[in-house]
Amino acid sequence: MENNQSHSMKHYPIWALLGLSMLLASNVSADTDPMKSPQFCGGCHTRIYKEWQSSAMGRDLTNPVVYQFYSGTNGKGEQDGIGYQPFTHGAKGDCADCHVPQLTLDEHGKGREVDLGVALKEKLDHGISCNFCHTIEHVNLDKGADGRYKTRLFETVKLDESGAKHGPIEDAHSPAHPIKVSALHRDSKLCGTCHLNQEKFLSISTYADWKEAYDSGKTRDTCQTCHMPLHADKVELALGGPLREGVRTHTFIGASDQGMLKQALDLKVQTRVEGRTLIVSTTVENIGAGHRVPGSGPIRNVILKVDAFGPDGAALKYAGDPKGLLPSLAGMGNPKTGARDALDWAGLPGKMYAKAYQSAVMPNGQKMVGVGGFAADTILFDTALKPREPDTVEFRFALPEGTSGMAEVKASLTYRWVFKTLADSKGWSIDYRPMREVHQPVSF
Q1: 21-30, 170-179, 368-377: lowest mean pLDDT where?
Q2: Which of 59, 64, 91, 165 has the most CB atoms in a 10 Å sphere around its CB?
Q3: Half-sphere exposure of 267 toward its Cβ, with a 13 Å CA cutoff?
Q4: What is the mean pLDDT of the chain?
Q5: Domain limits at 164?
Q6: Is the dihedral of CA 102, 417, 208, 57 positive or negative?
Q7: What pTM did the predictor assign?
């Protein structure tokens, strides 16, 4: 049953032909090998295909943010000068490695680099696909002699060219293709293939951060444990296959999942009054993620916002260290009109947890802050939360003179997938993703 079939259509079993018929009907991809498409795999692996479709990985090829941040365009298709190619004078670079990985490897074998913008527009690859992930047979994520990681895909990944598909189930069989049992597919190293990117800095450090936490005993979970949760019930891997326990989903949940956000961080608040000053001490701890929070790319951020209100409900004046105010990356509003919206929090009491970079001097003589790793020249600050390492901050507010009563403190943690200033420049919207909120009355 696991014989190698030829590429002649008449030699493919009915399950494989069903997958091909789905692909031809949908006409989604221009890839020259339709047998490598997710739709083809979905002919048999229908549940897994639907899960993948719903995930950020499944939507990556049609995600406008990916294209716009690479090409330096806005939602109207206009050049705005903010993105990989504008910052690198039109270079093709390594962005394609993880967004169109099969095409990247194919073209590298021919001595060519892939322009991700062209690949996305012309649908030249199937993206982060079933075929790519399940043909990986070896991953190398070791540092070089210079202490830096080599993270180009052709340096880190070896694919199995035999046609076999790799996975962790030991007794799986398929009439459509050979199967090889792979311990790698239960290993975080597989995910580190893309969740690690060495530029001037290690701009995407998620795998390295996890490995540090895992090796020190701060987490026992792998990437798959959290981001591919187990199905509660028995499910089949493919149509007609046996029902199995212990099967993981292919939804690849992350920061867009509210449940995952709520379990990632803990927030504690303590208050005291000294004279006419209300002192608020906050402790934020990463209790649920095996890597730093926020993870992924250097434009992600978590904002701790602290508000204090007097007996009349009016906001109390901040009276603490200016370092206790949120930076410009939290949102400054319209620089021309001064207008601010409800999500412009710069200058308000709080703390931003992020790894924020600044670019080198641009042609206009200015430096940009909150840029991607490709433009990183300087680390502005790095406050991302390591697992089980609490961070305590103190904020001070002036209580109204000559009165007594009850004040109220509200502290909240909110996740943002992009710095507000960058979102405003690109015309991207930021959805509100609350993580934790604490309300505490204070008598004075």
Answers
A1: 21-30
A2: 165
A3: 24
A4: 92
A5: 9-58+128-244
A6: negative
A7: 0.91
